[in-house]
Write a structure and sequence with these properties.
37% helix; single chain; alpha+beta; 553 residues; six-stranded antiparallel beta sheet; five-stranded antiparallel beta sheet; 12 helices
């Protein structure tokens, strides 16, 4: 992203227009390197976000709600102490630098104090420093007194700007001409390395606009032109950057650089939250799968031990059959196995201390114990297999999720299943439709987002509605709300394509989708969420299609 002095120039001017004259009403620090201000202005309340992380450092407006910690960090308390109800008198960029300063009138019951908040947007060196009369009141990132550093940043020290870089001013036409004149090639890197406040992304825009033979006059005009064409650029359908100007063909234009920046970071933050939620859910599922696989392995080992149960029973029977020839004190004998067609003999060990009858009972007892164990372990194995199948279906829903709302539904399902800890705070009810909803020809089609939603959908529709599910794949349950009326072939095709898209098989070609009346779909007692059995169905082969154009807003 071009978070350089060139782009910051436009952002600072736009923020100045919106915020100067406004009063700070609320200050929070939701994260270590994130500070937010609620500012009352003539046009209403605005939320200023200052991010000082190594990646994504910025100053912009946002509408996103980020929960603040119960105990405010020290820097947040310092800002509240001095800047609560302060009025913004000036907001500007330090010329050619990635630094924005905000002048503030801080009023208390006894005096008016003038302070300045310097916001330094310099990658891993990003910082926020509160200054009064040139003296540092406090900083987000401070330096220790004994630390070997060129720049001192702690309370009571004099505030100084970062040391200037040995670069050409973007207003020095002659110097720009000299730099470009000495270039053998690779002017993009040269512009970024030699001209002050220009990132590689901005330099690339210049050479993309004018070509690698760009002239000094063209570079000068580009950097000093006050006009902007704000946009968010896209790569493969995903936001890739925001720009003050861009020659990129895949872009969305906005009314201001500030709007473009806000939209870009809103998309980036949404993607970040989505990815974090996916990782969290996948981690919980993987942990549960590992636990069940371990349990399954133990069951299989136990069943392996029980495979000799019938041999024990046979030995007990052979002892009984030959009891007339056996005496106490014998340690074993050979007997003809009358179950073997060849009449082979089998060796049978005996306990010398027991009578032949007691030896037979001993074998019978071992046999009965192993049979009981086999029955119990087979039941456990069936239960484990069902849980693994269920976890696979949840994993499938996570993989097919296309919104944060989908993942929140799955997260709630895992909480109900005991795979995630319960939350103490009551979840807010979302006003949007609980299912993926589509309209075709006046007919409504619904699709579940998770196993729990699939169950809920099944309960909410009537027996005459048409129900769909992929054959041999985990998928969303899809229902056409027909109310018992005949469903047009085209509506069936659309619903089947949606069902195929939200299934494990959507990366394949043709996918079989079963459909039947809801009345033919049953949920067995105590079965896992999303599990059903159905009858009297027909099957259609179809291609996956999300049918975004039919989605109900």
């Amino acid at each position: 992203m071009p978070q350089d002095a060139f782009t910051l120039k436009f952002i600072a001017k736009e923020l100045s227009t919106l915020l100067v004259g406004g009063k700070i009403s609320k200050i929070t620090q939701p994260a270590k390197e994130l500070v937010t201000f609620i500012i009352y202005t003539a046009k209403g309340s605005l939320k200023l976000e200052i991010c000082l992380s190594a990646t994504g450092c910025r100053i912009n407006l946002t509408k996103e709600e980020v929960p603040a910690p119960k105990v405010a960090p020290g820097f947040c308390m310092l800002l509240r102490k001095h800047l609560q109800n302060a009025q913004i008198t000036k907001l500007a960029q330090i010329d050619g630098e990635r630094i924005v300063f905000i002048d503030l009138d801080c009023t208390s019951e006894f005096e008016l104090r003038k302070m300045t908040l310097f916001i330094e947007l310099m990658g891993k060196y990003s910082n926020a420093v509160l200054v009064e009369n040139g003296i540092i009141v406090g900083a987000l990132k401070t330096t220790a007194i004994g630390e070997n550093t060129r720049r001192v940043l702690f309370s009571g020290a004099k505030y100084t700007l970062p040391e200037p870089q040995d670069k050409c001013s973007p207003r020095d036409m002659a110097r720009i001409a000299q730099i470009l004149g000495n270039a053998d090639g690779g002017k993009t890197r040269l512009i970024a390395d030699k001209i002050k406040g220009i990132s590689y992304a901005t330099a690339l825009e210049i050479t993309s606009t004018y070509g690698e033979n760009v002239s000094a006059k063209q570079v000068f005009d580009y950097l000093n032109d006050e006009k902007s064409e704000p946009c968010v650029t896209f790569t493969d359908g995903q936001p890739s950057d925001f720009k003050a100007r861009s020659s990129c063909l895949q872009k969305r234009v906005y009314g201001s650089v500030l709007e473009a920046q806000t939209a870009y970071y809103a998309a980036i933050n949404a993607k970040k939250r989505f990815d974090e939620k996916v990782r969290k859910l996948n981690s919980a599922i993987a942990s549960a799968v590992k636990k069940q696989e371990k349990r399954l392995k133990l069951s299989e080992e136990k069943l392996l031990e029980c495979r000799d149960a019938e041999t024990l029973k046979l030995k007990g029977e052979l002892i009984t059959a030959n009891i007339y020839a056996l005496k106490r004190g014998m340690d074993g004998f050979e007997a003809v196995n009358y179950y073997d067609e060849g009449g082979k003999k089998i060796k049978i060990a005996l306990d010398k201390t027991l009578s032949p009858a007691d030896n037979a009972q001993k074998y019978y007892k071992k046999y009965n114990k192993l049979k009981r164990t086999t029955v119990a372990v087979e039941a456990q194995k069936r239960e484990t297999d069902e849980k693994l199948l269920y976890l696979k279906s949840v994993s499938s829903h996570v993989r097919l999720a296309d919104s944060l709302y989908d993942l929140e539904e799955i997260e709630e399902e895992l909480r109900q299943a005991g795979l995630l800890p319960p939350v103490q705070v009551k979840k807010k009810t979302d006003k949007i439709s609980p299912y993926r909803a589509y309209i075709w020809g006046g007919m409504k089609i619904l699709a579940g987002r998770s196993n729990v939603q699939n169950d809920r959908l099944l309960k909410s529709v009537s027996g005459g509605d048409l129900w769909l599910h992929t054959q041999g794949y985990h998928s969303s349950h899809v229902v056409i709300l027909s109310g018992g009326k005949p469903v047009p072939d085209e509506a069936l095709k659309v619903a089947a394509e949606i069902c195929a898209y939200y299934s494990d098989g959507r990366n394949g070609n043709k996918i079989p989708v079963d459909y039947t009346l809801r009345a033919n779909v049953k949920k067995p007692p105590k079965s896992a969420p999303g599990f059903v059995v159905y009858s009297d169905f027909k099957t259609v082969l179809t291609d996956p299609n999300p049918h975004e154009e039919l989605k109900e807003e």
